From TrEMBL:
One of its GO terms (biological process) is regulation of DNA-templated transcription. Coiled coil: none annotated. PROSITE patterns: HTH_LUXR_1, HTH_LUXR_2. InterPro entries: Sig_transdc_resp-reg_C-effctor, Tscrpt_reg_LuxR_C, WalR-like. PANTHER family: TRANSCRIPTIONAL REGULATORY PROTEIN NARL-RELATED (PTHR43214:SF24), TWO-COMPONENT RESPONSE REGULATOR (PTHR43214). Keywords: DNA-binding, Transcription, Transcription regulation. It comes from Streptomyces liliifuscus. The keyword Transcription applies. Residues 126-191 form the HTH luxR-type domain. GO terms for molecular function: DNA binding. The lineage of its organism: Bacteria, Bacillati, Actinomycetota, Actinomycetes, Kitasatosporales. This is Response regulator transcription factor. Pfam families: GerE.
């Protein structure tokens, strides 16, 4: 990965192998993005990942069978989730996109991880929230869980990017989270998507 990124004139790479080393280096050099390979997410891993996410934008690389870890990583503040077989071109594109401030939660190459998750029964939270969402907000959260960017959602729904941002803001407030990544995690963890589908089928 470093050999690949070193070829990019606009990307400077500083490599560290442990969470503690990365945390110390990030606090000192303030990088735009930190790339983390799938940790076991022990208590110590969670602390380190949370600390790194507070210092920079974190991209999490996880195998397909580690989807549950990826969801938890989103809750901890990770900005994007990638599969290990993500192409070189896609990796560079995502690094630049995340660095520029855009939230790319689940790119195409990583969606297989989440598609393998079993369907969840709606929790109390999901059952309560689903009836507070407008039809448009329900469409937006469904597209967010597919890893769509604001621009892609705007194109899909034939609305402006400003309108999408407004819907996302309302979703975050209703779900009680601070980021779209956390909203996606909540949607998967609570069975919100299943609840929305059931509600849609019953109307």
């Amino acid at each position: 990965m470093r050999a690949l990124l070193d070829q990019q004139p606009d990307i400077d790479v500083i490599g560290y192998t442990t969470g503690r080393e990365s945390q110390a280096a990030a606090a000192d050099s303030l990088p735009d993005v930190i790339v983390v390979m799938a940790p076991a997410l022990t208590i110590e891993n969670r602390r380190e990942l949370t600390a790194l996410a507070a210092l920079a934008k974190v991209i999490h690389i996880a195998k397909a069978e580690s989807a549950c870890r990826s969801i938890e990583a989103l809750r901890l503040g990770v900005r994007a989730v990638l599969a290990p077989d993500t192409s070189a071109e896609e990796l560079v594109h995502i690094l630049r996109t995340v660095s520029a401030g855009s939230a790319m939660v689940i790119p195409e190459a990583a969606r297989g991880s989440f598609d393998r998750l079993p369907l969840r029964q709606a929790s109390g939270l999901a059952a309560g929230v689903v009836h507070t969402l407008t039809p448009r907000e329900a469409e937006v959260i469904a597209l967010l869980t597919q890893g769509k960017s604001n621009a892609e959602i705007a194109l899909k729904l034939s609305v402006s990017a400003a309108t999408v941002r407004s819907h996302v803001h309302h979703l975050l407030r209703k779900l009680g989270v601070g980021s779209r990544a956390q909203a996606v995690a909540v949607a998967y963890e609570t069975g919100l998507i299943s609840a929305l589908e059931q509600n849609s089928n019953s109307t």
